[in-house]
Amino acid sequence: MPILDRFDLTGRTAIVTGAGSNLGREMSLALAEAGADIVGVGRRPEPLEETGAMVRERGRRYLARPTDVTDSSEVNAMVADAIAEFGTIEVLVNNAGGGGAGRGKTLPELTDEDWHEGIDTNLTTAFLCSRAVIEHFVEHGFGRIINVTSGWGYRGARHRFMYPIAKAGVISLTKALAMSYARENVRASCIAPGAFPHELTPEVENRSGLQPAGRFGRLEEIGPLAVFLASDAADYLSGETVLIDGGAIAAGVTPAGMVPAIEEAG
Ligand SMILES: NC(=O)c1ccc[n+]([C@@H]2O[C@H](COP(=O)([O-])OP(=O)(O)OC[C@H]3O[C@@H](n4cnc5c(N)ncnc54)[C@H](OP(=O)(O)O)[C@@H]3O)[C@@H](O)[C@H]2O)c1
């Protein structure tokens, strides 16, 4: 088989959480360009529909499925609807997440709500969606779970507890999934982005020199990695977390390539 054919996703369907914005949208479009139909998931319907228009422009089918992926009953219903619409689901991209919970608070200042928000947004989301699809993947004899962690999953920061803790959990969840379902031909992998600004403002440009590569990640650079991990080209890759950070973690600096403001202040 020609090498590029092994990256072809024609006939596959991917659920992408957080599909309405930034990295999730980019991965949705890349998977669609490689041939996959897409189930776009997020809480807000409008951005999901915008992504849908772009997926359809690429000739693929798309289901916008507004869902709060911290809610197990909503997640289970979303997966059931996706299977009803497309017949089978082959790929799950657990991209929904975010970094604000409890940021800058000392340990005594962290509330129970901060803890649960940080874990729920970044780790419970991936757990619930993986649990909801796994029996379908096992029955089907095929499945690809792609989690999204962060360079922060590899390190700590002063008074930044929740995001690094939850994202480290995502790396561990990936290993547990990979080990548990390897013989069922279900692969689990993880993408660890460095800093991918949503907009290249002058302020962002000014800080780019602090990155080892001399620039930040470009949103569209995430797509090819997602396609690879979803494809037959990655058939023997499982349990692995792939850093895409222009060398920031290798350089021993933060994923953003700079000392966070909270550390400077301390
Ligand atoms: N950009 C970076 O520099 C960077 C670096 C490292 C890791 N990451 C990780 O990459 C992922 C995507 O981040 P991004 O930069 O693309 O940020 P973003 O635009 O804020 O994306 C987060 C997405 O997740 C969705 N989401 C959040 N909570 C949800 C929930 N409870 N239920 C359903 N959907 C939910 C949001 O949609 P709704 O608000 O509509 O629900 C949104 O589309 C995140 O996991 C983030 O931690 C990003």
How do the helices and strands line up, and which of them pair or pack?
Layout: E1 13-17, H1 22-33, E2 37-42, H2 45-57, E3 62-66, H3 72-86, E4 91-94, H4 112-140, E5 143-148, H5 162-181, E6 186-193, H6 202-207, H7 223-230, E7 241-244, H8 261-265
Parallel strand pairs: 1-2, 1-4, 2-3, 4-5, 5-6, 6-7
Bound molecules: NADP nicotinamide-adenine-dinucleotide phosphate.
Description:
The longest helix is centred in the middle third of the chain and has 29 residues. The chain is built from eight helices and seven strands. It has 266 residues and is an alpha/beta fold. It starts with 12 loop residues before the first strand and ends with a helix. The chain binds NADP nicotinamide-adenine-dinucleotide phosphate (NAP). The site of NADP nicotinamide-adenine-dinucleotide phosphate has 27 residues, from helix 1 and helix 4.
Summarize the structure.
About 40% of the residues lie in helices and about 15% in strands. By secondary structure, it is an alpha/beta fold.
